[in-house]
């Protein structure tokens, strides 16, 4: 190579480490983004949604997509995303049922 890849200068004498450094620097996902809206304890400042998929600090808003997945699935994200959506719809329906029951009391 005539130009050393930026950030990998210290590995130029070791081909394996150099190419590994390059791969880590330039490989990215284009079609299967996940994990951008961390789910967890509402008191954890690093989380975006709670376990019921509700966005913290914003009422009546939920995130029901692949962004709540903590890890990228080893295969296509389509089916896991549908599973998150099914679970999300169950949670929403249950919450609506509870609200309706409270209104009747």
From TrEMBL:
InterPro entries: FAD/NAD-bd_sf, GMC_OxRdtase, GMC_OxRtase_C
UniProt-recorded Gene Ontology molecular function terms: flavin adenine dinucleotide binding; oxidoreductase activity, acting on CH-OH group of donors
Classification via SUPFAM superfamilies: FAD/NAD(P)-binding domain
Domain Glucose-methanol-choline oxidoreductase C-terminal residues, every copy: 8-85
Gene3D superfamilies: FAD/NAD(P)-binding domain
Superkingdom of origin organism: Eukaryota
Entry's family note: Belongs to the GMC oxidoreductase family.
Name this polypeptide is given: Choline dehydrogenase, mitochondrial
